Amino acid sequence: MQLLLFLILYPLLFLISILPFRLLYLFSDFVYVLVYHVFGYRKKVVRANIALALPHLSEKERKLIEKASYRHLCDMFLEMIKTMTISIEEIEKRFVFKNIELYKEFEKSGKSVALMCAHYASYEWVISINSKADFAGYAIYKRINNKYFDNLVRKIRSRFEAHLITTKQAIPTIEGNETAGIKGLYGFASDQSPQLKKKTYWSTFMGVEVPVHTGAEMLAKRFDMTVVFLKVKKVKRGFYEAEFELLSDHASAVPDYQITETFLRKVEQQIMEAPEFYLWTHKRWKHKGKNKLAN
User: Fold this and answer.
1) What pLDDT score does 173 carry?
2) CA distances from 57 to 52, 61, 190, 242 (A)
């Protein structure tokens, strides 16, 4: 069944990927109507998340953000498909690293880099950094259940010299690289909701107490990595700018969870500046109020 589904969908995905951007975004407008107005994909989740995170806004203001976030979601989904065939030159024109020279300074320090980012604006096109980085690029991700689509995603990322590793593979991969003297650039989408465990770290995110991923910080401490935040901004449809911001160049000397807290505050700032570009379909606040139950 997995193979059949892949064989049915792959030709469609490929055809979408070769569309000129003008037609791609016209198609995105059509997809938006289906996703938002016809099927109402996760509309209750999105509406509840925006109301929870942005209670100071009026219902009308939140509704405008809701609609704009779905338009961006459809654009981003199709941009992700476009990655199947987009040229490196084209993606570099559309996803610009404004201060790449700062990243180059991080590499000169001789330490691997932990790149922390959020599900904001375009997190898919961050892979284009590998054409500029000397370090080997790795992205920690959640494996897709359909092995054929999972292999497709890996193949697409390999076009940009990016390696996908699961959470379980992260420690042995980093450890093996460090032992072999291979320095890496490791990407962490650290704003996701982790599984509840007794030792889960809790903090506030957009004013709500939630469990928080601390893997990037703890791995950076363990393997002495430079920790960097990537702030991404959507300039206009199909065009993004990204800036590197140093969180710590000596992680082991920073009190536990301080790096994670700084990261959260920076993501909150991004959201407050332009909330329509955050991935509101994520059930980010699903564990709110469960701190005492978890412990």
Assistant:
1) 96
2) 10, 6, 26, 27
Rounded Cα distance between 122 and 278, Å, is: 9
Q: Residue 187's closest CA among 243, 130, 238? A: 130
- pLDDT for 179: 96
What mean pLDDT comes out for the span 117-146? 91
Please give the helix or strand (H or E) that residue 258 lies within, else none. Answer: helix 258-273
Confidence at 253, pLDDT banded by 50, 70, 90? very high
Query: What's the chain's length in residues?
Result: 295
What's the token pair of residue 186?
């490791």
Beta bridge partners of 187: 115, 139
Q: Return the DSSP state at 278.
A: B
| Cα(250)–Cα(252) distance, integer angstroms | 6
The tokens for 108 are 């000169």
- Report CA 259 to chain centroid distance, whole Å: 18
Q: Give the model confidence (pLDDT) of 152-163 as tens digits.
A: 888 888 788 888
- DSSP per residue over 19-59, as a string? S-HHHHHHHHHHHHIIIIIIS-TTHHHHHHHHHHH-TTS-H
Residues 6+ apart with CB under 8 A from 282: 49, 119, 192, 193
Contact 90, 20 (CB under 8 A): no
Taking the C-alpha atoms of residue 118 and residue 84, their distance in angstroms, rounded to an integer, is 22
Give the pLDDT score at 295.
53
- Which of 9 and 62 is assigned the larger pLDDT? 62
In this structure, are residues 140 and 167 in contact, taking their beta carbons and an 8 Å threshold? yes
How many CA atoms does the CB half-sphere of 192 hold within 13 Å? 14
Which segments of 83-146 does DSSP mark as H helices, in order? 88-94, 100-108
Binned at pLDDT 50, 70 and 90, residue 294 comes out as low
Pick the closest to residue 13 from 109, 77, 103 (CA basis).
Answer: 77
